[in-house]
Every structure is written in structure tokens, then in C-alpha cells.
Design brief:
Elements: H1 3-18, H2 22-38, H3 40-47, H4 53-64, H5 70-81, H6 88-103, E1 105-112, H7 118-132, E2 135-142, E3 150-154, E4 157-160, H8 163-178
Parallel strand pairs: 1-2
Antiparallel strand pairs: 1-3, 3-4
């Protein structure tokens, strides 16, 4: 994450706290992030310096002006004006990072070959909350290269319970015994 994203995302977070709009702005930021992700051409259009600033502003107002918080709409306009709209995703991450820090939430990503059931996700979430001592926001990813087991990333720590990891560990132990 760039210093620019930390500064801008952090500033928007502080404003949202001050205005008591953290949940509203945070949720809308993620929705707009998804829109930008799904519509890369729209993002390029808003970032195109040959299009006059007034026209880009009008496009932002038409797309988000009536649905999003005015602070968020103005934030997007500011990024667009400064030609740093590509930093929007990182600004979202900084906003979420600050929110999570203030609310004692740890983000975890669980990766497996198949999707876990709701019951399995809840059990894993409870176990991770015990380990971390924090409330856990759990995101699930599927990766067919994970043959069996799970890999969990929690606050920068890797908890690897995959078969591949276990086999690698056994292989290292055998190498130590043989040598």
C-alpha cells in the first residue's frame, strides 16, 4: 500500500468517524470498489486526462451522487482531480484496516480446494477468535491447487494445515534423520 493511499484512506476514515458515518461510508466504499473492479473501462474513463475535469465530475455525480454519501462522492472526485483514482482500492483497504483496528477485528483468509459449509466457517471463525482474542472477519477463497486441508492467513500469520504442508514437514524431518 502506498503512502498516498494511507494518507487519503486514513483521512476519509477520520472524517467518517467525526461525522459518525463510518459504517455507511465503509459499506459504500466497498460497493463502489466492486463497481470499479467490474467496470475497468469506466475507471479508465474517469482517469483519462484528455477528458475535461468538469465532464469527469459530472460522470461521478451521475453514477454515485444520489446513492452515495456526499463525502465519499467528493473523495472520488478528489482522487480523480489529482489523477490518483487508481489508488481507490488501496484507500478502501486503509479505511477497512483503520476500522478493524478501532473495533478489535482481525481479518482472516481461509483457502481450500472446496468451499466450506456455513457450519464449518462458523466453527473455524470461533476457533480463530479464540486464537487471536479478537473478533474475526473471515473470507473464503477456493484454490484447486490446495489438494486437501486448509490454509489460513490471520493477521500476517500463516496457519497451514494443508496436506502439502504436512508432507513437506515430514520430508524435512526425514532429511534431518537421514543426514
Amino acid at each position: 500500500m502506498t503512502q498516498t493511499a494511507r494518507m487519503y484512506g486514513g483521512s476519509l476514515y477520520e472524517l467518517a468517524v467525526e461525522e459518525q458515518l463510518v459504517e455507511a461510508i465503509g459499506g459504500q466504499m466497498e460497493e463502489i470498489r466492486q463497481i470499479f473492479h467490474e467496470n475497468a473501462d469506466y475507471m479508465k474513463l474517469l482517469s483519462e486526462p484528455s477528458i475535461p475535469w468538469e465532464e469527469r465530475t459530472k460522470l461521478i455525480d451521475e453514477a454515485f451522487g444520489s446513492q452515495a454519501q456526499k463525502y465519499l462522492v467528493n473523495f472520488i472526485k478528489l482522487l480523480c482531480e489529482r489523477n490518483i483514482l487508481r489508488e481507490y482500492g488501496s484507500c478502501c483497504e486503509e479505511f477497512r484496516r483503520r476500522y478493524n483496528a478501532d473495533h478489535g477485528i482481525a481479518e482472516a483468509v481461509v483457502t481450500g480446494a472446496v468451499a466450506l459449509s456455513d457450519v464449518q466457517m462458523e466453527a473455524l471463525k470461533q476457533k480463530l477468535e479464540k486464537i487471536s482474542g479478537k473478533k474475526v472477519s473471515l473470507v473464503q477463497k477456493k484454490d484447486p491447487s490446495v489438494v486437501a486441508g486448509l490454509r489460513v492467513e490471520l493477521e500476517g500469520k500463516l496457519l497451514d494445515g494443508t496436506v502439502q504442508s504436512r508432507l513437506s514437514g515430514l520430508s524435512r524431518k526425514l532429511d534431518e534423520i537421514i543426514v
